[in-house]
Amino acid sequence: MAATTPFNGIGKSVSRTVLITGVSRGLGRALAQELAKRGHTVIGCSRTQDKLTSLQSELPNPDHHLFLNVDIRSNSSVEELARLVVEKKGVPDIIVNNAGTINKNNKIWDVSPEEFDTVIDTNVKGIANMLRHFIPLMIPIKQGIIVNMSSGWGRSGAALVAPYCASKWAVEGLSRSVAKEVPDGMAIVALNPGVINTDMLTSCFGTSAASYQPPDAWALKAATTILNLTGADNGASLTV
């Protein structure tokens, strides 16, 4: 359904429409699967069409969901996403800006300009593009929850991943600032997912990443956290 249901902490008892970026793998994929199991409508986007098609076929009532090939780094691509989403599903109740990337472990002087730009363009500008095109759709109805995926490294620092840390600190600042620009009833939240065994964690931790919880276990808790967010959470920095 479109964003007409009051956000009052009712969790999974009312069907929601949830848009997730970076949905084709890792946390985004696991969250989409969990939300669909709970009866919610998933709108997903990523840059990998075959993975989108595969995911949609795995979900309950696959035709109930919408998956689109989108590059969130591109303003025009996100503009078209917003147009199609409203046309086909209405204004989402919840948006989870999950798409992200990390640099290969390296000291900042060994990170190429191109790799640095990719991290910032995805993790920061991608979210900004989503906010630019979806917040104006939510303002007239004064409802909508936007979750910007942050990180523990958006609240601390770590060697060898300075570009990633910088991008997640930016997500925290962007979220807190934009929260002051939206009307009562809406919420912009920075969410630290915790430490989960994903491809990105493997990039940093190597084989020790396997000792952390898998995405599907994380999604059980994350889905409940996200579904229970309300306007009262606007501007918060939370952790799953």
From TrEMBL:
<dbReference type="InterPro" id="IPR020904">
    <property type="entry name" value="Sc_DH/Rdtase_CS"/>
</dbReference>
<protein>
    <recommendedName>
        <fullName>Ketoreductase domain-containing protein</fullName>
    </recommendedName>
</protein>
<dbReference type="InterPro" id="IPR002347">
    <property type="entry name" value="SDR_fam"/>
</dbReference>
<dbReference type="GO" id="GO:0006760">
    <property type="term" value="P:folic acid-containing compound metabolic process"/>
</dbReference>
<feature type="domain" description="Ketoreductase">
    <location>
        <begin position="16"/>
        <end position="199"/>
    </location>
</feature>
<dbReference type="GO" id="GO:0005829">
    <property type="term" value="C:cytosol"/>
</dbReference>
<dbReference type="InterPro" id="IPR057326">
    <property type="entry name" value="KR_dom"/>
</dbReference>
<dbReference type="InterPro" id="IPR053241">
    <property type="entry name" value="NADPH_pterin_aldehyde_rdct"/>
</dbReference>
<dbReference type="GO" id="GO:0016616">
    <property type="term" value="F:oxidoreductase activity, acting on the CH-OH group of donors, NAD or NADP as acceptor"/>
</dbReference>
<comment type="similarity">
    <text>Belongs to the short-chain dehydrogenases/reductases (SDR) family.</text>
</comment>
<dbReference type="InterPro" id="IPR036291">
    <property type="entry name" value="NAD(P)-bd_dom_sf"/>
</dbReference>
<dbReference type="Pfam" id="PF00106">
    <property type="entry name" value="adh_short"/>
</dbReference>
